[in-house]
Amino acid sequence: MSPFDKARYERLLEGLEVTEVLCSEAMGGTETSRIDPEYFNRDAIVAQKKIGPGQSLGDLVLDGYRVVYETTQAIDREEGERLGLPYFLQAADISTPFIHAEGMICVPEADWIRYPKGRIKPGELLIEVKGKAEKVALVPDDFPQKTLVTGTCFKLTTKVQVDRYFLAAYLICRYGQALKDRLKSNLLVAYIAKDDLYGLPVPKVSDKLKQQLQRCFESIFSSQGEARSTLNVAERHLLVALGLDAWTPPEALSYVRSSRQAFAAGRLDAEFFAPRVEQLLARLGRDGLRLSDVAPARHERFEPSGSGDFEYIEIGSVGADGTAASESVPMAEAPSRATQYVRTGDVITSTVRPIRRLSALVAPEQDGAVCSSGFVVLQPQGISGEVLLTYLRLPLVCELMDLHTSATMYPAISESDLLALPIPAIAPSVQAQVQDAVRQSAYARQHATDLLDAAKRAVEIAIEDSEAVALRFLRDALPPLP
């Protein structure tokens, strides 16, 4: 190719991602029989070259399964636990590398019998293989034994225990993710087949680095456990202040309400008029305050325009810890439900299925992000944001919210009903205790996030540079040994 033709060729390709592949390599086929451009994308080829020839994921695996199972019958968790029914772990319950067991539902005993290969065992590694295929989780030793996993995840057991920590860090680092992405099929719903996953190239690293990664993950889980513990402390402080810590609600077999009360409430269902609900409303409404008095709704409308990206928070990104992740979305691809701005210190709460406790505090780095219309955005004014978040996540308050839902497919509470919920005046000393506990939880959670980033980066450094540099990096990131 002449210099003139080469320059013209480069101008034509300006702004495009192009990968040059030898004809013999493309036509000769691949391990996965792929010749499509997605398979030969630049990031995957770079990752493949840096890792080089060596071992594959299958070389480290003792056994693994992906069970095509999605529950068709969700059972109330409280009732399921009373009956000793199995749990069901959904992809939404996984937040790399953690499993939020408190969000799991229960399923019929027949499912447990029918899908033995879908049962989760402590020590296994869960890998999302459907859709985005970005999540990886380690099953802790104290995980509920009777649990089935969703078919969107592949579960595997490594031959050597320490390898699961190394694989967890590798599969979520930039190189592991790039090589996973290339294995996705081009079907309507992308997924990674078992044989393709087993063929995923894996770098060879020393046992010393693996042991340091294990230590890193143990610190991650320790920090996450501390975060959960201090969040529970915040809830206990608030329950004591509300007089609900030792409250035993009445469970009457029968009760009577007048037609006037029914028509005033606009409700005819027995649950709404239960004595336990009546007493709870009286306790929470003792000061005559409503949620709107201490946290009015923000209505700052978002209209996508121009080019560029924006940060989007959807209901599925709210975690069990009172946080919400945001995702960068191009303006041109803005979802129809992306309708309202959020600001630092706002509290967002899901109107859909409020019993799931999906509320979150907007972090400073999320100021100006956009959230789904499925949220109500609250501006704490007469209350601390951390206290409001804790209050909205109390199971008893979520139960009240759930009583106001309508529809069956997507039961939701209206904004007006949400803002009309009672809330008592909370003493400044109690607010300070709750706020301190929530902030300690956030600090521990951030520490866990930083350590996870360090584990990923250490694997990348080992691939890009050397293990010696990776070990020094981890040594600086980890707390000193006792």
Task: Give an overview in words.
A hairpin with a 2-residue loop joins β4 (about 95) and β5 (about 100). The chain is of the alpha+beta class. The model has no long low-confidence stretch (mean pLDDT about 85). It contains 17 helices and 18 strands. The protein has helices at about 5-10, 25, 40-50, 75-85, 110-115, 165-170, 175-180, 195-200, 205-240, 260-265, 275-285, 290-295, 385-395, 395-405, 415-420, 430-465, 465-475; strands spanning about 55, 60-65, 85-90, 95, 100, 105, 125-130, 135-140, 145-150, 155-160, 200, 310-315, 325-330, 340, 345-350, 360, 370, 375-380. The chain is about 40% helix and about 15% strand. The strands form six sheets. Strands 2-10-7-8 form a four-stranded antiparallel β-sheet, with helices on one face. It is globular. α3 packs across α7 (about 175-180) and α9 runs parallel beside α17.
Mean pLDDT: 87
Largest beta sheet: strand ordering: 2-10-7-8
Which structural class is indicated by helix and strand composition?
alpha+beta
Rg, rounded, reads: 26 Å
N-to-C CA distance: 64 Å
Q: What is the number of helical segments per DSSP (H or I, 4+ residues)?
A: 17
Shape summary: globular
Q: What is the tally of beta strands?
A: 18
The low-confidence parts are none
Kindly estimate the percentage of residues that lie in beta strands according to DSSP: 5-15%
Helix content: 25-40%
Largest sheet: 4 strands, antiparallel
